[in-house]
Amino acid sequence: MLMLRKFVKCRPTTRFGLTNQRDLNVAIIGQSSFAAEVYKLLLKNGHRIVGVFTILDKGNRQDPLAAVASENNTPVFKIKSWRKGENALPEIVAQYKKVDAELNVLPFCSQFIPMEVIEHPKHKSICYHPSILPKHRGVSAINWTLMNGDKEAGFSIFWADDGLDTGPILSQKSCPVLPDDTVDSLYNRFLYPEGIKSMAEAVDMVANGTAPVIPQSTEGSSFEPSVRKKALQKVDWSRSGVDIQNFIRGLDSSPGAWTIINETEVKLYKSSIWTNETPTGEQVTVDTIQFPAIVHSNGLLITCNDGLKINIERLSVDGKMMAASNYGNADTVQETIDYTDQEKAYIPVVESIWKNILNMEIGKDTHFFQSGAGSMDVVRLIEEIKDKLKFTLKNDDVYMSPVFSDFCNTLVKRSRGSTDDNIRVEYDPVVVDVNNMKLQFAKQLFINGQFVDSESGKTLECINPADESVICSIQCASEADVDQAVIAASRAFEGEWSEMSPRDRGAILYKIADLLDKNREELATIESIDSGAVYTLALKTHIGMSIDVWKYFAGWADKIHGQTIPISHARPNRNLTFTKKEPFGVCGIITPWNYPLMMLSWKMAACLAAGNTVVMKPTEVSPLTALKFAELSVEAGFPAGVINILPGLGSEAGRAIAEHPDIRKVGFTGSTATGHAIMKASAESNLKKVSLELGGKSPLIILDDCDLDKSVRMSMGGVFFNKGENCIAAGRVFVESSIHDKFIDKVVEEVKKIKIGNPLERDTHHGPQNHKAHLEKLINYCIKAKNEGAELKIGGKRVDRPGYYFEPTVFTGVEDHMFIAQEEAFGPIMAVTKFSSSDLDAVIKRANSTDYGLSSGIFTKDISKALRFAEKIDAGTVFINTYNKTDVAAPFGGFKKSGFGKDLGEEALNEYLKTKCITVEY
């Protein structure tokens, strides 16, 4: 890191002789990529770098500061030492003075610089230090920030004096310390990028005569020793678990905390506090701890003496880095990979990148870190790989594969889509051979990143509607399970998820979209056997639109912002008012059975993009794609607790979500009756915000000037799409009398061509209804329609075969007072009403006469009539000369008893955000 020792007598901390010049002659004394970036930014800002003073080369590898300065023909001086004993070396000082600098800039200077050099320039010297001075003076400042458990980290730019980091402060900046921060993550996220920028800003302030000189306080000051001493790196297991976690992460990734495991010295990296259930695995002995540690699929779980559990993901044994989950496994050698011709072309590119970073010839056994690379070189390597090969690697890919040949293997595997991230969740799978593939999915609740059994032990049967067979039994969530999920979601919201940048959250949303795409055939098959969806439709719509939704809202994650608002000033002062968009916290989501994965995605993607965490109850009759999604969410990198999925009954789990006092928002899609119950429970519990997408009885009006063939095709899609299990289905079709009979004839003719059958067969048009109770409801619906006088033209009964198949149905002569004209079928039943062309307003009035207002449509070539219809129809969506055309960017939601609030589009974000107004007087 840093620290200078200046020697010679003290000088007073007063403002130095500053001028208003715009640029300066600057000498940079320091090292590392940090100093190199400061050098480049100062040049960009117009300052002249008259000399660079840095360390000697390490073997054939010169310091990055020396390299970048040489490229720009700046004089470079590589100094072994500036002094001998307590005395400055005269020849070195004389060499320095010849560059005639007006200001010394010391970014990451590790050498002891004599006061003859510090004091020589007109504007003296400014220095960077990675702590909020006066706390943590000394060379290992950032390590001790973490090891001491500080909640805040930061850096100081100060005027160098003859003490050890005791000079007056020029500027300071800080950031919160996240629960799993390491030295690397703090540097990469804040200390490097903000420090580089602030060093350049400090030089500008010096140049313009505006640089402050604030004497350091002695209050709260501390000086800790260098952590380079091995004795200071050993874990003291007698301390509390929190102190141990802070100690390990404070030494990650350099120099590393060490302990004894099974009588072998081992270094520990990537530690985190473990809050999940204790996994099974091989037991090992750790130093003086009374409990055995467990090697499991996600690392090494150590139980501290106070009971706190810490998980270690990486170990270094005999200088070799390895996944902690592989500890004790003799077979840790990377697999041999046969490269394609394209993959072989990657190798010289990677070799060139390594050569430029390490400044040496690269062989297959070259070790990245043993050749002198540090943590910032890891960042540079990843960025150059991304720039030149378009692959995104992780820091761990370098740490786990530091040998050139192994690194190339890792890169090739990443290019093929392999992750090897050891973040797959463990569960007892259901395995099913169907659709020429082996399906595997969970059957438990998903809480806090783990699949667990229900507290009550109750189960639900999942029935395949195509043949009425039992697919499996799954765990059924209770009120207690909901409470545990809310606790996990609250912890995640208050911790890692909220502390993550919106852009990083968006990256995880993009990752889940990619995983859904990668597993689309498996997901579509699960959707088909669990809900009856035709496989080809499931691929295109159920899964395809889900993927699109996640990608769309991933793009919104870092674009959520408030506004500045002009208000009247409080004279003689002034006011600034601005708004912030903030997440609610824990949100509940309850979804229906017609599009299980798509409805999950419509709501959850917007909810998570807004920064909330989720407790979600999928429908009890079709929950399996939700559980597969839960599995993929772990692989995508969602922190534990962000997503919790609890299959269960609406009467218990759904009610518990609506009533829970720590859930601040509920999004629901389902029946109007259930929507009423949710609103009531939400109001009586804590007045939580609610958005409801409920029933529909969507009117579709066909005028005689339409394209008749297109109207027939679109009307049938509007009614029969997804077996009629579609919330915006055209529940009532009004056909102008002059074309009514021809329209009906064409529809009946086309209905006869619909193939009803196994939803997995590629030529099937119409699969089974979702479940038995719904099938029986449709049968009774048709009986009531006939009893009230509607004329059945085709269908209206169950298909004579195993499974919940129902014939596509057409009724004519439907009158306004009939049950079929007022209530939603939610099935493949077309209800047709004839109307006269003399009065469009009259038919619009009839269309508006239901309690619902979800969707609507009109077919006509008369744009005036179409726009009049769009203006007067009381529905949230209006289709003109099309139907069922939804898009992830277009808001979706209804009026009246069809609910309120929007899914999809930018408006969906507002359902999961609250607006805070802030006014400042100045």
From TrEMBL:
Binding residue positions for NADP(+): 670-671, 777, 824-826
GO biological process, one term: 10-formyltetrahydrofolate catabolic process
Signal peptide interval: none
Carrier domain sequence ranges: 341-415
Pfam families per record: Aldedh, Formyl_trans_C, Formyl_trans_N, PP-binding
Cellular component, GO annotation: cytoplasm
UniProt key word Phosphoprotein: yes
Molecular function terms from GO: formyltetrahydrofolate dehydrogenase activity; oxidoreductase activity, acting on the aldehyde or oxo group of donors, NAD or NADP as acceptor
Reactions catalysed according to its record: (6R)-10-formyltetrahydrofolate + NADP(+) + H2O = (6S)-5,6,7,8-tetrahydrofolate + CO2 + NADPH + H(+)
PROSITE patterns (UniProt xref): ALDEHYDE_DEHYDR_CYS (PS00070), ALDEHYDE_DEHYDR_GLU (PS00687), CARRIER (PS50075), GART (PS00373)
Name recorded for this polypeptide: 10-formyltetrahydrofolate dehydrogenase
Native species: Macrosiphum euphorbiae
